[in-house]
Amino acid sequence: MKEILLEHGGGGESTGKLINDIFLEAFSNETLNKLEDASPFFADGKMAMTTDSYTVNPVFFSGGNIGKLSICGTCNDLAMMGAKPGYISCGFIIEEGFGIDELKTIVKSMSEELKKNNAVIITGDTKVVPRGNADKIYINTTGVGEIVYDGLSSSGIGEGDMIVVSNSIGEHGAHIFVMREGINIKSDLKSDCRSLWPLVDLLIKAGIRIKAIRDATRGGLSAVLNEWARQSNVCIKLKEELIPVKREVKGICELLGFEPYHLACEGTFVMAVDREDADKAVEAMRSHEYGSNAAVIGTVDSEFISKAVLETGIGTKRILDIPAGVLLPRIC
Amino acid sequence: MKEILLEHGGGGESTGKLINDIFLEAFSNETLNKLEDASPFFADGKMAMTTDSYTVNPVFFSGGNIGKLSICGTCNDLAMMGAKPGYISCGFIIEEGFGIDELKTIVKSMSEELKKNNAVIITGDTKVVPRGNADKIYINTTGVGEIVYDGLSSSGIGEGDMIVVSNSIGEHGAHIFVMREGINIKSDLKSDCRSLWPLVDLLIKAGIRIKAIRDATRGGLSAVLNEWARQSNVCIKLKEELIPVKREVKGICELLGFEPYHLACEGTFVMAVDREDADKAVEAMRSHEYGSNAAVIGTVDSEFISKAVLETGIGTKRILDIPAGVLLPRIC
To answer: What are the structural domain ranges in chain B?
Structure first.
């Protein structure tokens, strides 16, 4: 068995073999192993549910692959609701001819990332489509988890709150762009694809009063902050020099005429916290490898209501706009 | 706006317009309307979770379309676990250039089918992939629901139990085959695509002791019964003349050399019930339009352990085998 055949999606013997040899091998747990069409789980109280289909191109990139991304992305959406990732479903759409070894690598990354979230896949589905009906592999992951930190709201940010990022920004977008366009830059840049629940858990346990939190995916930092400014009727003011951006990302932005604030992150969040908690939050996050460049990057006031504003090093201000159109299809 | 553009999947303004004008228009509810990356729901007790990606070709068929199928299929998987469909997620992968009017039709069917299940979509995702990276549209739906009838098990069927089907079999498979292969048969045949929760709810309320229940999708009736016979270590014996098969399906099977028992259903289930309840179950189902041809089709004994067996009208017996390979890719 070297590559995926149509019969692997037929629901018969070959599907059974694929499930046993590859999916159960990686995702094995008591519930999934029963291979029912639906799986039971216990819940008690307020839960969160989220879904994403992943179509990233290329499927393998530096810092991750579509499988790792599919677990990180969905678990991160739960974490951003204050929910502890719990039960995950996965639906594969695989193009006929896709390599079995590549599938194994993808599935192994998913398994590793699930462990970091202490989450399990309890139900799944595999469809194989004929050549030319998909591009290699698409993965849908849907997650449910218990909400353990309630009261987060993008409309609850007030004057005096502080804006904090968990790490340097724009790395996923910059890296995928460079890979896709075949730009020959000698660079150590890789995607920031990583799971955020460990950092969120750490902040909750440190007693940080988080008002709003969001991973800066499609549309980057600017999309999140513009939405928050509008929904909370406030002005979010960033100090450009405080925003952590890696040298490689800056270089790519200069070369291609992008702004790092518009580039997608896949393992970096921005949050609004109570003023007194900002430094404590940064300190807590810096103790973890996923928050190594955490920083306070701005404040909330009422100067330009519903706007996000950048203050440059020399004191000038400019509106941080929302990216228009598509910077890059199939970024996630 | 006539067709889907790449920017509809970019997460920016066009995505917002697509979500508002099409998805919220059809699926509107208090939770979804907040458009968070994850949505809250309340749960208490034993829940079920299921996922399926739908890639059916053609997207529109007689009796339904990919949207109706995506809600029926996922809600049916919950119903087959004794779970009341509750909260659904949907993830769209749309090929650039897909028609907006067609998308609206699909989404409207989804909305109608959700109502039949008393279920709601609370979270969603849209990806647009460049032309040639998908075939029109793929939909993942993942559902969670409370298990209200517990104890169903494909390994708990015993001698003396009766086998019952909810309606005539093989219609989805036969219809899709005829459409796909462009076979010119004058026929009223259509897919049996429909939601099964209303029938299951009715059986539970009638106090029927259901041992096992399964919708006969990929692999048809024979796949389900073979699995049950193996898992329960019993012989499932069907009387061929009792199995409801529409004239059109029989005709297509004769023409193409298929067996109706191998053809997929998308709104028909088979169940094993306590002997005393079989007639009552059939009567209850026949009172509903979705169970109009419900029938007792067989019994459970121990003559050929782990096998499903067909008894013909003249008394001969033959093993009902499992379909090998792929009868038809992209059937669901």
So the answer is: 36-147, 162-319
**Are the C-beta atoms of A231 and B36 separated by less than 8 Å?**
no
Taking the CA of residue A289 and the nearest CA in chain B, the distance in Å comes to 25
Instruction: Name the residue among A109, A50, A98, A110 with its Cα closest to residue A78.
Output: A50
From the list A170, A142, A160, the residue with the least C-alpha distance to A77 is A142
Report the amino acid identity of residue B208: I
Chain A residues close to B324, C-beta within 8 Å: 12-13
The CB density around residue B248, as the number of other CB atoms within 10 Å, is 20
Q: CA A148 to CA A84: how far, in whole Å? A: 7
Q: Output the tens digit of pLDDT for each of chain A's 332 residues.
A: 899 999 998 877 888 899 999 999 999 999 999 888 899 999 989 999 999 999 999 999 999 999 999 999 999 999 999 999 999 999 999 999 999 999 999 999 999 999 999 999 999 999 999 999 999 999 999 999 999 999 899 999 999 999 999 999 999 999 999 998 877 777 789 999 999 999 999 999 999 999 999 999 988 999 999 999 999 999 999 999 999 999 999 999 998 888 999 999 999 999 999 999 999 999 999 999 999 999 999 999 999 999 999 999 888 999 998 876 666 778 89
Q: Sort out which chain A residues have CB atoms less than 8 A from B43's CB and list them.
A: 43-45, 47
Which of B37, B132, B214 is facing A77, going by the closest CB pair? B37
**pLDDT tens, position by position, B283-321:** 999 999 999 999 999 999 999 999 999 999 888 999 998
CATH 3.40.190.120 describes domain A162-319: no
Average pLDDT (B183-202) is: 91
Q: Please name the residues between 13 and 52 in chain A that touch chain B, using a CB distance below 8 Å.
A: 13-14, 36-52
Contact yes or no for A147 and B40 at CB 8 A:
yes
Q: Give the other-Cβ count within 10 Å of B101's Cβ.
A: 11
Q: Provide the token pair at A28.
A: 């094995």
Q: Does A276 touch chain B (CB under 8 A)?
A: no
CATH class of B36-147: alpha beta
State whether B87 and A49 contact (CB < 8 Å): yes
Q: Quick check: A173 contacting B, CB < 8 Å?
A: no
CB proximity A266 to B under 8 Å: no
Q: Which residues share a beta bridge with B307?
A: none
Q: Are B325 and A7 an interchain contact pair (Cβ–Cβ within 8 Å)?
A: yes
Q: Give pTM, 2 decimals.
A: 0.96
Same fold, A36-147 and A162-319: no
Give the B window 78-107 contacts with A, CB below 8 Å.
78, 80-81, 83, 87, 89-93
Verify whether the Cβ–Cβ distance A39 to B52 is below 8 Å: no
Closest C-alpha to B6, from A223, A59, A266, A57:
A57
